[in-house]
Amino acid sequence: MGGLPLQDASSTLALPGSQPNQGLEVTKSGTESKPKKKICCACPETKKLRDECIVEHGEEACAKWIEAHRKCLRAEGFNV
After folding, report:
1. Domain with 44 in it
2. Are 42 and 78 in contact (CB under 8 A)?
3. Are 66 and 50 in contact (CB under 8 A)?
4. What distance in Å separates the CA atoms of residue 42 and residue 45, rounded to the nearest whole number?
5. 3-class secondary-structure state, position 67
6. Which of 7, 26, 66, 78 can pair with 73 through a Cys bridge, CB separation 3.0 to 4.6 Å?
C-alpha cells in the first residue's frame, strides 16, 4: 500500500479564525494577553460618553472622552 505518509494531526494548518485557543487571556508563551471581548463590546460606559459627545459637539471637542475610551480599551488588552 504505497502512498503519502500520514502526518501527525498537530502539524496540520489551521484556517484563520478556527484556532481553538482564540480568546484566551494568555498566549502559549505566557507573556502576551489577548482581549477577552470583541472591541465593539469592551468599555461600554466610555464608548457611550465618547459617542454622545461626538454627536453633540464634534470630534475636535471630545478629545478627553476619546482618550478615556482608548485608555479603557488598552486596559482590556486592545492595541489602540
Report:
1. 38-80
2. yes
3. yes
4. 9
5. helix
6. 78
Count the domains in the chain.
1
Say which residue the cell 505518509 belongs to.
Answer: 5
Mean pLDDT of 64-77: 97
Is residue 45 a part of any domain in this protein? yes
Say what the pLDDT of residue 24 is.
39
Residues with Cβ < 8 Å from 28, sequence gap 6 or more? 21
Chain segment 13-70, per-residue pLDDT in tens: 444 444 443 343 444 555 556 667 899 999 999 999 999 999 999 999 999 999 999 9
Is there a domain that residue 32 lies in?
Answer: no
3-state secondary structure of 33: strand
Cα 37 from Cα 42, distance rounded (Å): 6
Alpha helix ranges (H) inside the chain: 44-57, 63-75
